[in-house]
Specification:
Elements lengths: L21 H41 L16 H15 L4 H4 L5 H12 L4 H12 L4 H9 L6
Length: 153
Amino acid sequence: MANQYEEYEDDDDFDTEEANGPANLRKALKRAEREAGKLKDELASLRSESRTRTVKDVLETKGVNPKIAAFIPADADTPEKVALWLDEYSDVFGFQTNEQSDDIVAPESARRIQDSTSTATTAGRDEDLGSRLAATNSKEELDQLIFGMSTGR
């Protein structure tokens, strides 16, 4: 018949020389504290990098000079908080965010838009050429369309 202490017999294999009690606990505590310190430093570094990236992204999307990032407070760590701060202090720094400027286009952007539209072909011209190309039935008609003259072959 089994006795009531049979399930605890595995504890007899416990080496009492290695378990110095408080000394090992102090060592384990120091190891845990060192590891916790490293993790805190890593977390602080990652938070700083994340905030820097967030501020940079919001400044880019709003079209604001990135040097303004130096003035944004540290507690503005989410895109919403950064955007709110920019909207609130835009008059102090003398800039307009993209939302405030509505349809105002920067001169450089306007020049690029003008350059691209001045050389673009219109849809009507392309459609007309496509329909005339599809209507050709012979090589001579195709040559006439492409070269603008009859080949006489």
